[in-house]
Write a structure and sequence with these properties.
Blueprint: E1 4-5, E2 10-13, H1 21-26, E3 31-34, H2 47-56, E4 60-63, H3 73-85, E5 90-93, H4 98-108, H5 114-123, H6 132-136, E6 146-155, H7 159-171, E7 177-180, E8 185-187, H8 192-196, E9 206-208, H9 209-212, E10 217-220, E11 224-228, E12 233-236, E13 241-249, E14 254-255, H10 263-266, E15 272-273, H11 281-290, E16 294-300, H12 310-324, E17 331-337, H13 349-359, E18 362-365, E19 367-373, E20 378-384, E21 390-396, E22 399-401, E23 406-407, H14 410-413, E24 439-441, H15 454-471, E25 478-479, E26 485-492, E27 495-501, H16 523-539, E28 553-554
Parallel strand pairs: 2-5, 3-4, 3-5, 6-7, 6-13, 7-10, 13-24, 15-22, 16-17, 16-22, 17-18
Antiparallel strand pairs: 1-2, 8-9, 11-12, 12-13, 14-23, 19-20, 20-21, 25-28, 26-27
Helix pairs in contact: 3-4, 7-15
Organism: Paraburkholderia translucens
InterPro entries: BLH_phosphatase-like, FAD/NAD-bd_sf, Prot-tyrosine_phosphatase-like, Rhodanese-like_dom, Sulphide_quinone_reductase
Protein name: TIGR01244 family phosphatase
């Protein structure tokens, strides 16, 4: 007998028999729901038999039979009523458990977000993809009317989405393109490290979405609930349907603040900050300016994360300020990194280590932040020892810069587009989906083994633009993405180690070494980061101008 947990209050299972009731009671269940009509199978006990055995065990038993594949809105409503009335926890069953899981999903749809429901069912081994639209519509069978239809639909209006839209239009201005994104503001996120270091003002990293969208692009200001790639459809929140000929998926990733116990309650207070949020980066700079002595901790979660160098950038810029202001000798700087190395591309580590030693930074590898107590100023880390045992380590702090764990957005992770880890499953060279030929993806959401940086998106956008048009017969040849990523590591105010690399960590400098030696700190690289990259982002990348980003075309 197999109990599959959906929530603390409900588990589902395949068909049970009379002799199972004692074990069900022993497992702590207080009630059962039968969702299988009597007589479906020759080896199936009747509900009356199950009910009598349940009564002997002190279990309540309810009968809500549903034909396979015919779960009605009324059935789901009745299931919800039973769940409100019965003593918890409850075990619901049918032939396989699928009907029970479906009834639960539809009954919860008006109070829980669709990705949460679909994800819980997936974790229990049940795919609810066939009812995604109903779940997104609050549990009711939707009237499937297309809200819109476009040749090309782009999900996500971040750096990747807008750059791809602009690159497409630069190739063919007649294209019918729609961008789906609910946000009012577009952010230049690479600038937030500089905000946290007192170099940029926060408002210079933000612009109204309407001001940066390419001309002639339709803006669908809504959130995405689900994908139906077999039907060439995107389901919006509220169950509106947008149809497409070609789909580009680039919604970025999810910062999982809730994965660290206590973090959400204390962010922006008690010395707890993060440059990974627009409104918190100024607090980083405030803490750095005000800190005179004590312990400053900088954390880095397990990979993958957006801009793997960002946790270090905050640490180096802070340490540089404290050194310049004569305070560093009174401040203990510690880095707690869940990984095993300082930086993933070994060629750049020697230059970084010079600054680690210069600032007297303590490096702690294999430490994953699991909890924060802001008022007590305590951080708790999990560490796996060599013998496989796990220890919990707590450190006090006066200031802590936290980088949260990161994963694909919920509506991506539970979609048909995702791989087992939840990222969009693409060919790492063409950026075309491995299963659905009319779907392309780029940016932080894909499963290609490249760094998740704006520089990567800048190189990926022209590749997607070309390959998508080739798939429509509007151009020829195939463009290839080589895994390029760049991470300007701000090691001090005025100097940067410019890390540039391809798949496999192969160093790939854009400039001759006599101009910028990426393996050494450079003032010219700082000027590139401070003065050139922001206008390059706003005026070139988001405008379809592919300076140093034109893809190589084969065939």
């Amino acid at each position: 007998m197999e109990f599959r947990r959906l929530t603390d209050d409900l588990s589902v299972s395949p068909q049970i028999v009379v002799k199972d009731l004692a074990a069900i009671r022993a497992a702590g269940y207080r009630a059962i729901i039968c969702n299988r009509p009597d007589g479906e199978g020759p080896d199936q006990p009747t509900f009356l038999e199950i009910e009598a055995a349940a009564r002997e065990q002190g279990l309540a038993a309810s009968y809500l039979p549903v034909e396979s594949g015919k779960v009605s809105d009324d059935d789901a409503a009745k299931f919800g009523e039973l769940m409100r009335e019965l003593e918890k926890p409850v075990l619901a069953y049918c032939r396989t458990g699928m009907r029970a899981a479906t009834l639960w999903g539809l009954s919860e749809a008006s109070s829980k977000p669709a990705p949460e429901i679909i994800g819980a069912a997936q974790a229990a081994g049940y795919e609810l993809g066939a009812i995604t639209a109903r779940v997104a519509n609050g549990g009711k069978a939707p009237v499937r009317v297309a809200a819109a239809s476009h040749d090309i639909v782009i999900v996500g209006a971040g750096a990747a989405g807008l750059a791809t839209a602009a690159s497409l239009l630069a190739r063919d201005a007649t294209l019918d393109i729609a961008v789906i994104d609910p946000a009012d503001t577009h952010y230049y996120q690479p600038g937030w490290t500089m905000v946290g270091g007192g170099v940029f003002r926060p408002e210079t990293t933000a612009r109204a979405m309407a001001a940066v969208l390419p001309r002639n692009v339709h803006w669908i200001k809504a959130g995405v609930a689900a994908f139906e790639p077999a039907n060439h459809a995107v389901i919006l929140e509220g169950c509106r349907v947008v149809r497409y000929r070609k789909l580009i998926v680039c919604p970025g990733l999810k910062l999982d603040w809730g994965a660290i116990a206590g973090l959400a309650e204390t962010l922006g207070r008690h010395g707890v900050t993060s440059n990974y949020r627009y409104d918190l980066a100024p607090y980083t700079w405030q803490l750095v300016r005000e800190m005179k002595r004590g312990r400053a901790i900088f954390t880095q979660p397990p990979m993958p994360i957006k801009c793997a160098g960002a946790p270090q950038k905050a640490m180096y810029l802070s340490s540089d300020y404290w050194q310049r202001s004569g305070r560093l000798q009174d401040i203990e700087v510690q880095m707690f990194n869940a990984g095993a190395v300082l930086f993933g591309v070994a060629d750049y580590v020697p230059a970084l280590m010079e600054y680690v030693e210069r600032y007297g930074i303590g490096l702690n590898f294999g430490y994953n932040l699991t909890a924060i107590d802001g008022p007590a100023r305590l951080a708790t880390f999990r560490r796996v020892l060599q013998d496989g045992t796990v220890e919990s380590v707590t450190r006090d702090f006066d200031m802590i810069h936290v980088v949260p764990p990161q994963k694909a957005p919920d509506f991506i992770r539970v979609s048909p587009l995702a791989d087992q880890a939840g990222w969009v499953d693409v060919d790492q060279t063409t950026l075309r989906h491995k299963t659905f030929a009319d779907v392309f993806a780029l940016g932080d959401v894909i499963n290609a083994p490249n760094a998740k940086t704006a520089a990567a998106a800048r190189k990926q956008a022209p590749v997607v633009a070309h390959n998508l048009l080739a798939s429509m017969g509007r151009t020829s040849g195939q463009a290839s993405y080589d895994g390029y990523g760049s991470c300007p590591l701000t090691v001090e105010r005025g100097k940067i180690v410019l890390a540039e690399f391809l798949y496999g960590g192969k160093v790939a400098p854009s400039f001759p070494s006599w101009l910028i030696d990426g393996k050494r700190p450079s003032r010219l690289a700082w000027l590139l980061k401070e003065r050139m990259l922001p206008p390059l982002y706003w005026r070139a990348m988001l405008k379809g101008r592919e300076w140093l980003a034109k893809p190589e075309i084969v065939g």
